[in-house]
Design goal:
CATH architecture of the largest domain: 3-Layer(aba) Sandwich
Shape: globular
Distance between the termini: 19 Å
Radius of gyration: 17 Å
Order of helices and strands: HEHEHEEEHEEHEEHEEEEHH
Strand order of the largest sheet: 2-1-3-6-12-13
Number of strands: 13
Number of domains: 2
Bound molecules: ribulose-5-phosphate
Oligomer: single chain
Strand content: 25-35%
Largest sheet: 6 strands, mixed
Structural class: alpha/beta
Number of helices: 8
Low-confidence stretches: 225-233
Length: 233
């Protein structure tokens, strides 16, 4: 089974979390694209979707799913999205696709965050995947200097402008021992719009597509640390 097959398997399992008449939160990335493909036959059962990016919104519209403005939606049950890395506490690095700010907003409104990944995304310590930070363009070098002080190596993603008109810096060489603390510290730097650490609002359910099939970890059933031994690399 290759990585795409594992992503597809996780994306298919996520369909089980959809109920008739739902408004869905839909994330961004290749795993979510597989999930969106699965929505085509269900389009008449879904009231609509709130999207975390213009790219996903386009895909949703193409298959006939109404895309709703988050300002018109007070609450919804489920947000489905991928991750670049996820640990045993269901804390994540996200933003490989530069959609981190809208992803964090949509995840904040959702009652349940269902994360869909292939097994290569599981880690014991976050940080091997460079941590994306969305910044106001004029603050790019200032935020980069602050990240060097925190032990990181910032690299400007020069070919990318986010859906919000901002820049992305990817921070290499971090070993993130306390994701919640680091999320808070980076959020306090002036000019930072969003850091791609999803620790304060992590995932509630993790669906992992792997060589041995699909595995589901429900954070509300296992507690935040009960799954560590089983799933970490
Ligand atoms: C986009 C994201 C994606 O969820 C993350 O990059 C995973 O992508 P993929 O499913 O393509 O591996 O955070 O901003």
């Amino acid at each position: 089974m290759n990585q795409n097959d594992m992503k597809k398997a996780a994306a298919l399992e996520a369909v089980k979390y959809i109920k008739e008449g739902d408004i869905l939160g839909v994330g961004t990335g290749s795993t979510v694209n597989f999930f969106i493909e699965n929505l085509a036959p269900l389009k008449d059962k879904i009231k609509g979707a709130v999207s975390s990016s213009l790219a996903s919104a386009e895909r949703l519209k193409k298959i006939g799913i109404p895309v709703l403005d988050l300002n018109d939606v007070e609450e919804f049950d489920v947000y489905i999205d991928g991750a670049d890395e996820i640990n045993g506490n269901l804390e994540m690095i996200k933003g490989g696709g530069a959609a981190l700010t809208r992803e964090k907003i949509v995840a904040a409104v959702a009652k349940k965050f269902v994360c869909i990944v292939d097994e290569t995304k599981l880690v014991s310590t976050l940080g091997a995947f460079p941590l994306p930070i969305e910044v106001i363009p004029m603050a790019r070098n200032y935020v980069s200097r602050e990240m060097i002080k925190m032990g990181g190596r910032p690299v400007y993603r020069s070919n990318v402008i986010t859906d919000n008109g901002n820049s992305i810096i990817d921070i290499h060489d971090l070993m993130i021992k306390s994701p919640k603390d680091l999320e808070k510290r980076i959020n306090m730097i002036p000019g930072v719009v969003t850091v791609g650490l999803f620790a304060h609002r992590g995932a509630d359910v993790l669906i992992i597509g792997g060589h041995d099939g699909v595995k589901i970890i429900d954070g509300s059933k296992t507690g935040s640390t009960g799954i560590r031994g089983e799933m970490q690399k």
